[in-house]
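Holo prediction — phenylalanine.
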Amino acid sequence: MKREQWGSRFGFIMAAAGSAVGLGNIWKFPYLAGTQGGGAFLAVYLVFMATIGAALIMAEIAIGRSAKKNPVGAFRLLGGGLWSVTGMIGVITGFLILSYYSVVGGWTVAYLLKSVAGTIETTKPDLLEAQFSGLVSAVLEPILYHGVFMVLTIGIVIAGVAQGIERSVKILMPLLFILLIVLVVRSVTLPGAWEGIEFFLVPDWSQVNGEMLRAALGQAFFSLSLGMGAMITYGSYLDKGADIPNASCWVVFLAALVGVLGGLLVLPAVFAFGMDPGAGPGLTFITLPAVFGEMIGGYLFQVIFFAMLLIAALTSSISLLAIPVAYFAEEYGIERKWSAIVVGIVIFLIGIPCSLALGIWGEYKLFGMNFFDLMVYAVDYYTLPIGGILTSLFAGWVVLEKMRKELSNDGSLTFRWIGAFTWIMRIVAPLAVTWVMLSALFGERLAAIWVMLSGLLWN
Ligand code: PHE
């Protein structure tokens, strides 16, 4: 069977940007910026995006296009059996992320339907908070919506790469941008918005610490869909003529832009309505309806916004599901359709305890975290950074020649940044990610050991 391909360069960029731009940028980024010190977090995040992020996305797309295989097959083909473990980490991470991502995707389905029904029209923070926590802590309702979200995801993936994924993102992504900009204009012109703009854009460097660096790096990876094979999978459907560095820069730019717009949408509103920027995961769902409540035509904007959020979530979730689907289809010959359905059902089942963890199963904890937080933590702290370190070592040391060829299309394009790329892949990215990971995990203990040692020396 002939391997599927993207129909156009624009289609690929939209699909890759669609994977990158998602709940991570509009839902997670604003609340992370809110809890991690605002402007300084933004600055650090942008630096990570422009350096390690940009280089790694090029590497992943190049690995995919060079091998024309799913991540496990790609690492095996290019680097030998042991390297396929890196691809395996990616496939597993796809399961982990999608199981909680789809729960949040379900909330967007719920909010879309409620907006259409006109049942969230208020600017009162208490009411909005009660409504949100009522939804996520319920038993059946969020699971039902999580199921709806998974069915939509499975449907698009079954329809195929060009017919399903590409066709939908080419319309949905431009729409998303237009809408975001309109909404940001409203948010930043709310009375009292200035404080939020300042909080988000003006860095207070005293906020930089190990935990924040880790969060910013994790977010850079997450928001570019890196470290887990999504871009390898999408790159594998890319034709030989496409300019990978150029396409990658577009994706980084668009993902960063949506993050910034997401922050400018949510945080000014938070301050304007006197809410708490450190409120966490509920932030977007609680503050935005308040913004709409203040707008002329708010009903319409609210409906469109939640439709867009759902779209952003879907264009990412399909890329998550596409990884295991490509893996099972190519490694075990399971038909695309069936692997999408079976994998989708398994992910739906893992998502159930994630959802219940925010309600009736909240008191069951492992390592001090409920199941939902545990999934987020495992991905952000372990699987994405480890996947990223291995991928960059692979690109920099094992297949650098292949990377050179792919990034310059066998010499027919000039890729001016190859020197920087090589350095980042070989040394900067592996060291920086390892350091950030260890300092976040062992920061206090390392400091304690240091104090002890210096005490011993002193005596
Ligand atoms: N990048 C997506 C987002 O920001 C999430 C994602 C991560 C998608 C990893 C695919 C792979 O929402």
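READOUT: The pocket of phenylalanine is lined by residues 19-20, 22-25, 97, 222-223, 225, 228, 230, 316, 319-320 (CB under 6 Å).
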